[in-house]
Design brief:
Layout: H1 8-20, H2 23-30, H3 34-48, E1 53-54, E2 61-62, H4 64-89, E3 97-102, H5 104-109, H6 111-121, E4 126-131, H7 134-142, E5 148-151, E6 164-177, E7 188-189, E8 198-202, H8 207-218, E9 227-232, H9 235-243, E10 249-252, H10 257-262, E11 266-270, E12 273-283, H11 291-299, E13 332-334
Helix pairs in contact: 1-2, 1-4, 2-3
């Protein structure tokens, strides 16, 4: 292997430059000097006898050869990380790393509680939570950068054959009002009343907004008739705006538990309708599955799922490393797979 024309450090540097867009920011992210980064790139280009960067612009742009090396380099680095984690697992959860992914709402309000319980039981395991859009999270699971994820949106079509997607639990989207709103005294809101309210929502291009609109449409609520008076960029901002009397909103029930307990928001009931979406658990059955991930799936996930839920990845999938020698009726609801 001495004649291999690149090192792992050089691949890490290449990946950092491509991600950061400049040699200087890449050097800062890796805690090394910019001259050291430049020297490594020069050595790499000389060893491969091909330019990897187009240095004509302000931003470091990869050449065709650079893109090709980056594509293979990311796979090599991922396999190296899996190898290290498999070796760490020999210590039987006395160390190691668990990487969990989530879409925005589940990552903000649900996963921290799960991770807290897991850390109480396994304090020596390092846990990372990556919160991104459903699409980006799905790709991270597919690439082996995340062990498992809980998402509320739709897995990209091109990944549905690769990933194992399991219905996990229902997430109700609650209609919230200011506690002093006239409808807060009525008890039940009729569907037609929704079109008279002033709504606060996320930006129309946000993934969460699209998911909410899709679920509402499945519940025969015409989102085009809803009066969107204000668009904000976070669930927390929306909750504060509703609390201040600026309008109504649909948010995940998991996002308002504290506010409901404190009595600062009113959760309205819509007659004949329960607005729900399905949260999904996704794993890549073709990637290494650490003992930490197995413990999280076995001991933590069932606590937040419906009674009787049990993860059931394909039995034929190579999800573990080889051993080394040794009830009641409810109103109509919509439950699209998310």
């Amino acid at each position: 292997m001495s004649d291999l024309p690149f090192t792992l450090d050089q691949l890490r540097i290449l990946k950092a430059i491509a991600s950061e867009g400049s040699f200087k920011r890449a050097a800062d992210s890796l805690y090394v000097s910019q001259p050291a980064v430049s020297l490594q790139v020069q050595n790499l280009e000389r060893q491969l006898d091909v330019p990897l960067f187009d240095r004509g612009g302000r931003r470091a742009q990869l050449t065709e050869a650079g893109h090709l090396l980056l594509s293979y380099g990311e796979k090599i680095l991922t396999l190296c990380q899996e190898t290290c984690r498999a070796i760490e697992d020999l210590q039987n959860l006395q160390g190691g790393t668990l990487i969990v992914g989530a879409s925005q709402t589940t990552g903000t309000y649900l996963l921290p509680r799960m991770i807290g319980l897991f850390r109480q039981k396994y304090p020596d395991v390092s846990v990372q939570l990556q919160v991104h859009s459903t699409r980006r999270t799905s790709w991270s699971v597919s690439n082996g950068q995340v062990d498992l994820a809980i998402i509320g949106g739709e897995v990209p079509t091109e990944l549905q054959e690769t990933l194992h997607i399991m219905p996990y639990s229902e997430d109700e989207l609650a209609l919230i009002l200011p506690v002093f709103h006239p409808l807060a005294k009525v008890g039940t809101v009729h569907k037609e009343d929704l079109y008279k309210l002033q709504f606060i929502a996320l930006d129309s291009q946000s993934t969460i907004r699209k998911v909410i609109d899709h679920v509402l449409t499945r519940c025969d609520i015409d989102t085009r008739r809803l009066k969107i008076e204000m668009e904000l960029n976070s669930i927390e901002a929306i909750k504060n705006a509703v609390q201040s009397g600026l309008g109504a909103a649909f948010v995940s029930i998991s996002a308002i538990e504290k506010e409901l307990q404190m009595g600062v928001l009113y959760r309205a009931t819509i007659e004949g309708v329960v607005v729900k979406r399905m949260l999904s658990l996704i794993v890549n059955p073709h990637r290494y599955r650490s003992k930490a991930a197995e413990a999280f799936s076995r001991e933590i996930l069932p606590q937040f799922a419906p009674p009787g839920w049990q993860e059931n990845p394909p039995s034929s999938a190579p999800i573990t490393a080889p051993k080394l020698n040794s009830a009641s009726s409810q109103p109509a609801s919509s439950q699209p797979t998310g």
